[in-house]
Design a protein that fits this description.
By secondary structure, this protein is mainly α. It is built from five helices and two strands, in the order ααααββα. About 65% of the residues lie in helices and about 5% in strands.
Length: about 70
Amino acid sequence: MTWLLNSLEEKISSSVMFLPAAKEMWDTLKVMYGNENPSRVFEIYEHLFELKQGTDPYLSSMVSLKV
């Protein structure tokens, strides 16, 4: 259980640290973060599209890379 708590951000670990078993921690985390949150997904996409590589939008510079 210690490795699980140490791998979480402090804010998140504090919400599960007093649960008696790792399974209960995992189950609680799944309930808290496992559901798709459309507004959070939109927020992440919005930040992604705001990224810049120099003066070009980041996604445009990624598309222009040759494999």
